[in-house]
Write a structure and sequence with these properties.
By secondary structure, the chain is an alpha+beta fold. It folds into 3 domains: 189 residues, Immunoglobulin-like (Sandwich); 129 residues, no CATH class; 46 residues, no CATH class. It is built from 11 helices and 12 strands. A 4-stranded antiparallel beta sheet has the order 1-6-7-10. Strands 9-8-11-12 form a 4-stranded antiparallel beta sheet. A two-stranded parallel ribbon has the order 2-5. A hairpin with a 2-residue loop joins strand 6 and strand 7. The relative contact order is 0.13.
């Protein structure tokens, strides 16, 4: 008779997702390794030291502000307002250069392009505003504005910023992680991929609270980089057990991973755990590659023990996950010889009488071998179970 893992205990045990954050830029490196030393040299050899110190401060502030700008610059909300307030009074169309929109800016002026995406130093627009030649009417742009335009150019001078990362909300998610998911226990080993930075966690790809880890869903990413890691694994009603005298069948063909994760599904690995000890099932070890969704656990040796809970930990190895332990589902079964109420190894009228008596007394759950009386697997004991037992005794088919 088939049983699902949730008929005995439905315990969802599945693990983490990973995000990342770029805190440093190539441009910052260029500033420190090229511009700052160059300016210091100028201070030494130029007479006007005061003016040069002011320049140093200006560059230093730009670097600091640029380095602290973790997010990508959005042209329409951050750059165009600067141009609108300080530039388009002259460059609505002066010199062929129109700064009233992104497309007009990127089309350049009479002398050609004024923006070189990825290279602010060679972008004419930045050179002019940095030198104070633009805007020609009114005050110079602030160091913050100059630095923001440099950052925008170095990020590719895009109208809409493109941020690469995991864009699949079905992947690991730091928000879910902080809610306590992505923690699994297999025997004595705890696999914990929640984002709290605990160094005792089984995985080495942990992150601190609030951080974005690699492969975790990034709600700010606009371009998927194929890094998504997945936690989904068979558990609960997705796992159906069949108890036989010489073993237990385990079927997780009902497992339905997200369609976005299917292309990364590489293999299944299964452990049987009794108490604190776990045993790999043959052909489903970490060294095997197996996409079969069922198995028969024949229990070498003495076989299963009546009334002793068995945990089956089914792990899914996704190609982006570091190893099989990133996605584990756990289901439980306490096997019984269904119908053998008196535990004598047979099925006869004595078992029918025992079941009828406990049903009438409403105390089947208190019997030593109570699980054997739930013939239809509905979690209760009633006349339907008595009828099912009587039928299998008459047909000599009990225990199958």
């Amino acid at each position: 008779m088939p049983f699902t893992g949730s008929q005995f205990r439905d315990k969802y045990e599945i693990e983490p997702r990973t995000w990342y954050r770029n805190l440093h830029s190539v441009t910052e490196y260029i500033y420190f390794t090229r511009l700052i030393p160059g300016i210091l040299v100028q201070i030494i050899f130029y007479k006007n030291g005061v003016e040069m110190i002011r320049s140093v401060i200006k560059y230093f502030l730009s670097v600091c502000l640029f380095g602290l700008g973790f997010g990508l610059v959005d042209y329409n909300s951050e750059i165009q307002p600067i141009l609108d307030s300080s530039c388009i009074s002259c460059h609505g169309n002066a010199g062929g250069l129109n700064l009233s929109s992104y497309n007009n800016l990127m089309n350049g002026g009479n002398s050609g392009d004024v923006i070189v995406p990825g290279d602010h130093e060679n972008s004419i627009l930045w050179q002019l505003i940095d030198a104070g030649e633009m805007p020609s009417a009114g005050g110079d742009l602030t160091s913050e504005q100059v630095g923001l335009i440099a950052q925008w150019i170095d990020e590719g001078a895009l109208e809409v910023p493109v941020s690469s990362g995991c864009t699949d909300p079905n992947a690991y998610n730091c928000e879910d992680s902080m809610a306590g998911e992505y923690i699994n226990e297999v025997g004595p080993i705890i696999y914990d991929y929640s984002c709290d930075g605990d160094p005792t966690h089984a995985g080495s790809e942990n992150c601190n609270e609030g951080e974005i880890c690699e492969g975790y869903y990034d709600p700010e990413a606009t371009q998927d980089d194929g890094s998504c890691r997945y936690p989904q694994a068979p558990h609960g009603d997705e796992v159906v057990f069949g108890v036989e005298e010489n073993g237990i069948s385990v079927d997780w063909s009902a497992f339905d991973p997200p369609s976005t994760a299917l292309e990364y599904l590489d293999s299944y690995h299964v452990q049987r755990c009794v108490g604190e000890g776990c045993t790999w099932i043959a052909d489903f070890t970490p060294g095997d590659v197996n996409i079969t969704t069922s198995l028969f656990d024949d229990f070498e040796g003495d076989g299963w023990e009546v009334g002793v809970e068995i945990k089956y930990a089914i792990a899914v190895k996704y190609l982006n996950n570091p190893y099989w332990g990133w996605a584990i589902g756990a289901s439980y079964i306490t096997p019984c010889n269904l119908g053998d109420l008196n535990g004598d190894g047979g099925y006869n009228v004595l078992d029918i009488v025992a079941l009828a008596n406990c049903v009438l007394a409403n105390n089947c759950i208190d019997q030593e071998n109570s699980c054997a009386g739930d013939m239809n697997g509905d979690g209760g004991y009633n006349v339907l179970d008595i009828v099912a037992l009587a039928n299998c005794v008459l047909a000599d088919s009990c225990g199958g």
